[in-house]
Structure formats: structure tokens, C-alpha cells
Amino acid sequence: MDVGRLVTLNAAYARAIDNEQFEQWPELFHDDCLYKVTTADNLAQGMEGGVMYADSRAMLQDRVSALRKANIYERQRYRHIVGLPVVLGEKDGVAEAETPFLIVRIMRDGVMDVFATGCYRDKVKANAAGELRFVERIAVCDGGRFDTLVALPF
Predict the structure, then answer these.
(1) Contacts of 62-71 spanning 24+ positions with Cβ under 8 A
(2) 0.85 exceeded by the pTM?
(3) Domains and CATH numbers, the chain
(4) Is 20 helix (H, G, I), strand (E, B) or coil?
(5) With contact defined as beta carbons under 8 Å apart, do 106 and 112 qualify?
(6) pLDDT tens track of the chain, all 154 residues?
(7) Would you put residue 16 in left (φ > 0), alpha (ψ -120 to 50) or beta?
(8) What is the C-alpha to C-alpha distance for residues 98 and 91, in angstroms, rounded to an integer?
(9) What is the Cα gyration radius of the chain?
(10) Residues 87/6, Cβ–Cβ less than 8 Å
């Protein structure tokens, strides 16, 4: 797996969220996919649930629709700092990779906080056009505390 292609995919992912182009976010996943936000502690204990969970691109699109039309939350945005991916293996055209992240949350009044740190555990493969897309993205957060304001994708 070409690490440069993974860097490009991660950059597009962070850019879509950071620039509030949420409709582009689900397009970075295959139709059948898994997206989950969890904690390192939950993962270590074998607890499979997540703060966010979707098992298809359609569920991701529903999340975007809810962000735009239904959810009410304090105005905020993210800035992702994404590290370099490490390819852990590849089998049958699916690469497994791990990529560290740091997310800063910027509130409407300009207050900035480190919102989350952790790593993305990914499975990626090319789509029919040869572009890498996520089969699975699990955002494993280092900390176990989130305020009640988890509205945006990680």
C-alpha cells in the first residue's frame, strides 16, 4: 500500500470535516462500511459500542442530514492535526493502517480546546475508480471523557 495515497485520503477526510463540507465526508467510505468512535479503554475491555456508530454509507449520510436539519448544538468547528499513517498489513486488496490524530474544537466565541487525541484504525481499499476509500474507520480516543457536545464526526 502506497503511504502517500493514505496521506491523501486522510487529508481529504480532515478537510471535509474541518471545512464543514460534511456532505463530502460519507463519499470517502464504501457503501458497506463501519465507522465508530470509541475509547482506548473500551477497546481494551472488549466493549464494542461506540460514542458514534454507523455500518453503512447511508447511515453516515443520515448523520450529515441530522447535523444540517435536525440536531441543535452550540456552534463549533474542528481542526484536525493528522499524523502519518503506518501500514500494518494488507490482505486481498484491503490495507490495515493506523494514523494518530489530534482534534482542536473551536467554539462560536473563539475558545479553543484540545477535544480529542487518539488514532484511527482503518481498513481501506480502492473503489471501482481506483480511489482509496474506507471500509472501516474506528476513531480510538485516548481519553474516556467527552462532554455532551459530540455532534461532529471525528
Answers:
(1) 63/153, 64/22, 64/23, 64/25, 64/26, 67/22, 67/151, 67/152, 68/22, 71/151
(2) yes
(3) 3-141 (3.10.450.50)
(4) coil
(5) yes
(6) 899 999 999 999 999 999 999 999 999 999 999 999 999 998 899 887 788 899 999 999 998 988 777 766 667 889 999 999 999 999 999 999 999 999 999 988 999 999 999 999 999 999 999 999 999 999 999 987 776 567 788 8
(7) alpha
(8) 15
(9) 15
(10) yes
Q: Which phi and psi angles does 86 have, rounded to 5°?
A: -115, 125
DSSP letter string over 74-143? --EEEEEEE---EEEEEETTEEEEEEEEEEEEEETTS-EEEEEEEEEEEEEEE-TTS-EEEEEEEEEES-
